[in-house]
Amino acid sequence: MRKDTLTYQEKLKQRVKKYCQTVYKQVHVKKTELKTDTVCMRENPFYVDTVRDFRDRRYEFKRLVKVWAAKFKEAQKAEDPEAIETARNRMSLYESLQLAHKIILNSFYGYVMKKGARWYSMEMAAMVTHTGGSIITDSRQLFDQIGMPLELDTDGIWTLLPKGFPENYTFTLNNGKKISFDFPCTMCNNLIYDKYGNKQYQTLINKERREYETRNEMSVFFEIDGPYRCMLIPASKEEGKMLKKRYAVFNHAGKMTEVKGFELKRRGELKIIKIFQQEVFEKFLEGSTLQECYDACGEVGERWFDILDSKGEYVDDVELIDYIGEERVLSKGVHEYGTKKGTSITCAKRLAEFLGDEILKDDGGLNVKFIISKNPLDAKVADRAIPTAIFESEP
User: Fold this and answer.
1) CA 18/CA 26 separation, integer angstroms
2) What pairs with residue 141 in β-bridges?
3) pTM higher than 0.70 for the full model?
4) Residues β-bridged to residue 202
C-alpha cells in the first residue's frame, strides 16, 4: 500500500515537473526579498572588538613590513651583508604574520554562519555580504567615471586608471613632518564613510552608571595595492558569460606578484599546462605594440603545439613523462579506501606490485605520480592509471 502511494507521488511529481517545463519554461520560482534587521552588540561587543583587534594587529605587521623594506634598501646601499640578511628575515616574518592574521579575519565571517557557533547570527552574515557587495558596486560606479574596472572581487576592485590621474599626495605640516595619502583610496573611503557609516555606534564609558558615548563609526577602508605594470584576464569562451577570479598580475619589475584561477597555481594539474602558462604569461610583457606582443606569445604557443603534434618526438622520455604526468597525495591509507576506485588508488596498488607492500602506509601521505594510458579504450580512467616509477625500474 505504502509502496503504491510513493509510486503515485513520484509519478505526480514527474508530471507536474514536465507540465511546468512545458508551460512556464521553469521548474523553480526564485524570489528576491530585501529585508532590514538590526544586530546590536552594545551590551557585549566581544565579537566586534576581537575582529577589530585582529585587524589593527594586521595593520601593525603591514607597517613593519614597509619599515624593514626601507631598512633592506639602506643595507643594500651600504653593502652590509649582516644587515641585509636581518632585514630580509624580518620582512619575511612580518609578511607571514600579516598574512596569517588576514586568513584568521576571513574565517570570522564563516564562523558567524556556522550553526552551533557561539556568535551564530545569519542576520549578521547577511548584512556583511549585502553591505560588502553594495560598497564594491558603488566603488565600481565611481571608477567607471574615471577609468576602466577590470575585475571585481568580494573585497576589492582592480581598475585601469588614466596615466595622468593623481595617485599620491604629500602634505608638509607646520612642524616639518610629512603626511602622505593615496588619492583613489581617499575618494572611495569618503564615499563609503558618508553612505555606510554607523551614526549611532555606542561605546561604554562608565560601567557603574551605564553611560554610553554615541559616535559615527566606519571601520571598512580601502587600501591601495599597486600600481602594476600588467594584468592578464582571459577572454570568455561564451558570449555574455563573465569569468570570475581568473587573472595574473605583473609588477613593474616583470615579476608575477599575484595569480588566481589558473592551472599554474592548482595542485594535480598537468605539468605541461603549468609550464606553458608560466612561459606564455611573461611574453605578454614583451613588444612595444600589440602585434609584437602577439608574435612573442605565438612563438611559445607554436613550440608547445609542435610537442603535442609530434607526440614528444624530439623530447627526452623522462622529460616527456614529467610533462604529461599527474601527481596526487593519498590522505588515508590504501586499505581504508576499501572497494573505492580512483586513479590515485589504482596507482598506489600497482606501485606495491613491484616495489613491495611496505610502501602502502596505513596513515596516508603516499605521494603517487602517474600517467593516464589511452588503452584499453573501453576501460575506465581509474583503471588506466600507470605509475611513472615503472618506466625507471628494471625490465
Assistant:
1) 9
2) none
3) no
4) 214
